[in-house]
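Q: How would the C-alpha cells look for this protein?
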Amino acid sequence: MLSVVVIVAVALAVLLPFQLNHYRDAKDNGASALRKQGQVAANQAAVELTSPTAADANSYVKDLLTRSTGSFKDQLAQMATTLESTVKDAGVTATATVSASGVKSVDVKKRTVAVALTVVQTLKNKAAPKGEPRYYRMLVTMVKRSDDWLVSDIRFVA
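A: Here is the predicted structure in C-alpha cell form.
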C-alpha cells in the first residue's frame, strides 16, 4: 500500500509542473487571441466611425448602434438623430484608414481590449468639396459578447 502512495506522489510531482505549464500556456494563448481579435475589431470600428456618407447616413447610425454597448451606446443613441441629419445636411463623404494601432490593455475575465489608434480621414462636404485630411488619435475599448465585438468606449486623445 505504501508503494502505491509513493508511486502516486512521484507521478503527481512529475506531472503537476507540466500541467501547470500547459494551463499557463493555454491562458496566455487565450489572452493573445483576445488581444489580436480585439485589435482587429477596434481598427474596424474606428474606420467605420470615421467613414460616414450622406447617402447612407441612416444605415451608418444604425450600424454604429448595433456594434455598440453600455454607456457608449446610450450616448450614441441620444445623439443619433442629430448625427444622421448633420451628415446628410453637410453632404458628408468621408473615408478613413488606421495608420497605426497598438493594444493598451487586455482584461481576459471581462473580455475587453483597449486599443490606441491613429486614424487618417479624408472628409468631403459642401464646405470642402475637394476634401480635407483629418487626423485623429483615439482609445477604443472593445468587449467580446458571444462571437461579436462591441464598442464600449471611444475617447479622443491629444
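The mean pLDDT is 87.

Helices lie at 2-49, 57-66, 70-89.

Upvote if useful.
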